[in-house]
Amino acid sequence: MRARTSQGRPADAAVARGAEALVDCIQRFHARGLCDGTGGNFSLVLEREPLQMLVTRSGSDKGRLGARDLVLVGADGRPCDLADGAPSNETPLHVAIAQATGAGAVLHTHSVWGTLVSEHFRSAGGFRIGGYEMIKGLAGVRSHEDAVFVPIVANLQDRVALATIVVGVLEAHRAARGLLVAGHGLYAWGRDLDEARRHVEVHEFLLQLAGRRLPLVRFEG
Ligand SMILES: [Zn+2]
């Protein structure tokens, strides 16, 4: 990531502050095993009109991540400076979610529990979970007696097509604060980085609860 001076771009200090906060968040997730290897990708909105966001570089090792591994992209998902290299190939999903929800940050993990649970409930298009105090950590949830629906979409390597499907799912589930891509991982978002991080933590907690309640899968082999 390079310093910015041109008009219309975020100030250098704002980019540096955002990059530091996003890298710190990713390092914490990596320490918890939520984005092993090159798994997961993460973004932070710096400007809304027009959209400009920091996104992790394609193929970046999340255990060795630094500000140099963040790429500033525009609303078309392309880098603002080609010299910065390629952003994650899942950037279309980050842009689509940020635009559809007004999120200030979009965080995508590849956890074991997210992968397992997304496969199990894939044919149902999602799963409902409630009755737990922890769901009050999701924006808009007031009581442990509430339930939340976590949508699941099929994985596609065509990320632009996948982003279009995700936008349709978000329109149908406006209360959702996260969704799963089957056999792949969790996307969660929030109005700012702190809220998005909290939404990842709560979803990962709920995914682990849901996963531990499942009967063991019989492995053929
Ligand atoms: Zn992914």
Descriptive report:
The chain has 221 residues and is α+β, with helices and mostly antiparallel strands. It has 5 helices and 8 strands. The chain has helices at 12-31, 91-101, 112-120, 159-172, 193-213, and strands at 41-47, 52-56, 70-74, 105-109, 126-130, 147-153, 178-181, 185-190. The chain has an 8-stranded mixed sheet with strand order 3-2-1-4-8-7-6-5, with helices on both faces. Strand 6, helix 4 (159-172) and strand 7 (178-181) form a beta-alpha-beta unit. Helix 2 (91-101) packs parallel to helix 4 (159-172) and helix 3 (112-120) packs across helix 5. The protein is globular. The protein starts with 11 loop residues before the first helix and ends in an 8-residue tail after the last helix.
Kindly summarize this structure in a few lines.
This protein is an alpha+beta fold and 221 residues long. Helix content is 34%, strand content 20%.
User: What fraction of residues sit in β-strands?
Assistant: 15-25%
Number of strands: 8
- Looking at the structure, what is the overall shape? globular
The neighbouring-strand order within the major sheet is: 3-2-1-4-8-7-6-5
- Helix tally? 5
Reading the helices and strands in chain order gives: HEEEHEHEEHEEH
Largest sheet: 8 strands, mixed
What's the gyration radius in Å?
Answer: 17 Å
Task: Give the distance, in angstroms, between the N- and C-terminal Cα atoms.
Answer: 46 Å
The helix fraction, in percent, is: 25-40%
Low-confidence stretches: 2-7
Bound heterogens, unique: zinc ion
Structural class: alpha+beta
Question: Average pLDDT, to the nearest integer?
Answer: 93
